[in-house]
Write a structure and sequence with these properties.
By secondary structure, the chain is of the alpha+beta class. It contains 3 helices and 15 strands. The strands form 3 sheets. It has a 7-stranded antiparallel β-sheet, covered by helices on one side. Strands 1, 2, 3, 4, 5 and 6 form a 6-stranded mixed β-sheet that branches. Strands 10-11 form a two-stranded antiparallel ribbon. β13 and β14 form a beta hairpin. The longest helix has 15 residues. The protein is elongated, with a radius of gyration of 23 Å.
């Protein structure tokens, strides 16, 4: 947890405001940002999910809006994306407040910034907007070959379903990486991909067997062939 919150602190430190871990022990000069770990859920068979909450305090709503935009941009490289926002005001002081919540992935207590590159022609291009990735394990089927006179089952291997990579992206109609995924699906051609996150990376080729591209974003399944 320490490395996670340290990364958030360092990302927000260059912003032109006072910065503290919620909750500050003394009044902060305006403008100010305080942050806290709102939620951490351990993933089952994949990365953990994390929610970071920010409270922006400023004398004017326009000042809070501008500072909130800077905070959003500062946390994107960590793999944190804005999940919700709301405007408030302190009744006793009149200070304008903006509450922000960011969601992201973590692994072993550290933030996990996912990145995906795919091959478009001979060049590697970044597929922007990736916010969810996971692997479906390979499956081995077995067939029971016992005879009618046998009571105990006897199994032999009967084919294998390859592992698959599942990906979800935020909308990006002009993104070359997402376009390459759609093109591979339409043409039925193999797609070369390179997935990175933290200290982990995976490289492979696969066939795009599922693809949904709409106003909510791109979702696809890549059956791994090598």
């Amino acid at each position: 947890m320490t490395s996670l919150l340290t990364a958030v602190y360092r990302a927000l430190l260059p912003l032109p405001c006072a910065l503290s871990r919620a909750w500050p022990h003394q009044a902060q000069p305006l403008p100010a940002i305080s942050f806290s770990l709102a939620d951490y859920k351990v993933g089952e068979g994949g990365p953990d999910s994390v929610t970071i909450r920010l409270s922006v305090r400023a004398a004017l709503p326009e000042e809070a809006d501008a500072l909130a935009d800077q905070a959003v941009a500062a946390l994107v490289p960590l793999g944190l994306r804005l999940a919700s926002a709301r405007d408030e005001a302190e009744a006793d002081t009149g200070v304008f407040l903006k509450g922000l919540a960011f969601s992201g992935l973590a692994l072993e207590g550290g933030l996990l910034a996912l990145g995906l590159e795919v091959k478009s022609g001979t060049a590697w291009v970044q597929a922007a907007g990736l916010h969810q990735a996971g692997f479906d394990p390979a499956e081995r089927r077995f067939r029971d070959i016992r005879t009618l006179s046998e009571t105990a089952s006897r199994y032999i291997p009967d084919g294998e379903t390859p592992a698959a990579l599942r990906l979800r992206f935020r909308p990006g109609s002009g993104d070359p990486g997402q376009a390459a995924i759609r093109q591979a699906f339409d043409a039925g051609e193999a797609l070369s991909w390179r997935l990175s996150g933290g200290a982990c990376s995976s490289l492979g080729r696969g066939l795009v067997t599922e693809c949904s591209d709409n106003a909510l974003g791109l979702a696809c399944r890549v059956m791994i062939i090598e």
